[in-house]
Amino acid sequence: VAEGEPGEGREPFELPRFWDALGQTFQVTSQEATKLSLAFSRPPLPSSEDCRKLCEDVQNAILAVATVYYWLPKGQGTTLRKMVRDATTEVVEGMIQLTDTILNAPVESLSQEQLISTGGVWEACEQVSNLPRGEYNQAAVVSALAACLGVVKDAVEEMEHALVEGQDPYGDIMEDEELGFRGNRDTYWSEADRQLLSSCMGLMKASKACLKKVLAAVKAHGKAESPEQIAQLDDLADIANEISPSVDELALSMYPPVNPLAVRLNAAKLASVLKKVLEIAKTSHVCPPSEEGWVQFLTGAVDHNMNKVKNFTQGQL
């Protein structure tokens, strides 16, 4: 499941039928996990015949989950497929863990580990109800973009809080010998640092704005009626996934002691990702003429802040 690629299948694919079947197989797997766990919750142990039957039922349930996942063809979109694959993998791994726990647990009583593992399978099986089921790949891409936006928002807020004038960026860390006295240059931002970091904050805020606008455009105009539209949505989700790690890397390099060249490098990486996102959005179906204004504005904002970062760090080269 984790590494295999579903085929296109010979029969016409029907998404509602797929969701029904996936939901049923997850539900059956949850029930089989309960039966297996109860059978080994107290003495006496099940007979060898009962064990065989339990094992067959668990195996059949897991094979059914994997089989239904393999129904989902590539043409429905890689973003949707990845979400379904992750959910399916979690169910299979949960059942493996439960089985291992039962094999290694004492028979006298129901162990805490066994209870946790059983609950883990239930939770994994319930994830099917949280999977985006809107118009094919469009709903999956909306979900992926919203998740990226949430992470970037948190990173921006955290850095804004740290950069408050006079704020000690390490104020939440206890005084210790390694950090030295609070006057230590390594624990504070200089005025020059703050000027550089204000431009970095501009890039981080542009990241948030970029994700918000792309998300709104996908919600308003995103379609998954043709292979080209599905591929464009997947491209947007893939490149948007690079924003959050790039924001995190830049944020980490902004803490003192500041190395201006490291900050410049990470700012350049983030600016490059943002320009790619904006370019892909601009050339896709989610960006009709009515959306071109914000693409142009954010492209200018990225360039403006990156040029300021370059100017502040020019003397370091």
From TrEMBL:
<feature type="domain" description="Cyclin-D1-binding protein 1-like N-terminal">
    <location>
        <begin position="22"/>
        <end position="163"/>
    </location>
</feature>
<dbReference type="GO" id="GO:0005634">
    <property type="term" value="C:nucleus"/>
</dbReference>
<keyword id="KW-0131">Cell cycle</keyword>
<keyword id="KW-0963">Cytoplasm</keyword>
<dbReference type="GO" id="GO:0005737">
    <property type="term" value="C:cytoplasm"/>
</dbReference>
<dbReference type="Pfam" id="PF13324">
    <property type="entry name" value="GCIP_N"/>
</dbReference>
<dbReference type="InterPro" id="IPR026907">
    <property type="entry name" value="GCIP-like"/>
</dbReference>
<feature type="domain" description="Cyclin-D1-binding protein 1-like C-terminal">
    <location>
        <begin position="175"/>
        <end position="279"/>
    </location>
</feature>
<keyword id="KW-0539">Nucleus</keyword>
<dbReference type="Pfam" id="PF20936">
    <property type="entry name" value="GCIP_C"/>
</dbReference>
<dbReference type="InterPro" id="IPR049317">
    <property type="entry name" value="GCIP-like_N"/>
</dbReference>
<dbReference type="InterPro" id="IPR049318">
    <property type="entry name" value="GCIP_C"/>
</dbReference>
<protein>
    <submittedName>
        <fullName>CCDB1 protein</fullName>
    </submittedName>
</protein>
<comment type="similarity">
    <text>Belongs to the CCNDBP1 family.</text>
</comment>
